[in-house]
Each structure stands twice: as C-alpha cells, then as structure tokens.
Amino acid sequence: TLSAQEQAYADQFRQDLTSQDWLFEKSEKTRYGSLRQEGDQIARGREKAPAGLLWFSALVRQGKIVKAILNGDFHPRPVQSVQWLEDALSGIEATPAACEAVYSQFLARPDVEFAGVEVAHLMAATTKAFESISADSPA
Q1: What is the largest CA-CA distance in the chain?
Q2: Tens digits of residue pLDDT in 6-48
C-alpha cells in the first residue's frame, strides 16, 4: 500500500509521463517552432558516449545559436542541468570552439554530473552538427 505522499508522486508521474506535452517537450518542432525565421538552419549531430547516446541540435541564425537541444539516454544530475546547459549555449557563436568553452566550464561545476559524458563526447556530437549545416551553406 502506498502512503498518501507516494500516491501523490505516482499520480503526478503518471500525469507527466502520459502527457503529449512531456513526450514532445524536447522536439525541434516544440522548441524551435515559434523561434524559426527564414534563413535559419538546424544543426544536428549524434555521438555514442560510455553513458549512452548524445543527440545535439541547434537552431542557428546568422552564425549564432538561437536555441540548443541536448538529448539522449545518459543520466544527468540534477535532471534540470541539461536545461541549464542548453540555456548557456543560447546566444553564443555557432562554432565548435565556442561550444567547447561552454561545455568545459559547465562540466567543471560541482553541482552538475553527467556521469560517463565528457567534453570530448559533447564536442563530437556538436562538431558533427555544425558540419551537417556547413555542407549545405554557411551558418
């Protein structure tokens, strides 16, 4: 038998995990939809780290990251730290060097743990993402 508090948690988890908003919250359509403008590009790259697959996507406008998405099957602590990292990428130059500086500083924080994920893994996905748009046209 669940306690009242456990039942409240179970009800909340059931509501969250069966919600269409929760399911599509990290999608490009949801995250980029209202932000997209003509001429914007989307960079996409993936990399397998020891912790799991990393997926990086960035909406790029005039050489800058408007919005980034980091997703995958790794286990960040705290969970909201992924959002903190995505927010830190917004507005920076859309270059591997600029992203590497953000990643290095971010993963050095004592309040963040991406177990099994290193800067090199994030950089591999990011570099592939930027290469995916440079093949089409300049960011």
Answers
A1: 59
A2: 999 898 888 876 755 555 566 777 778 888 899 999 999 999 9
Find the radius of gyration of the CA atoms of the chain: 17
Q: Can you say how many angstroms the Cα of residue 38 is from the centroid of all Cα atoms in its chain?
A: 23
HEC string for the chain: CCCHHHHHHHHHHHHHHCCHHHHHCCCHHHHHCCCCCCCCEEEEEEEEECCEEEEEEEEEECCEEEEEEEEECCCEECCCHHHHHHHHHCCCECCHHHHHHHHHHHHCCCCCEECCCCHHHHHHHHHHHHHHHHCCCCC
Would you say 59 and 32 are in contact if contact means Cβ atoms under 8 Å apart? Answer: yes
What is the tens place of the pLDDT at every residue in 74-109?
A: 889 998 999 999 999 999 999 999 999 999 999 999
How many residues are listed for the chain in this entry? 139
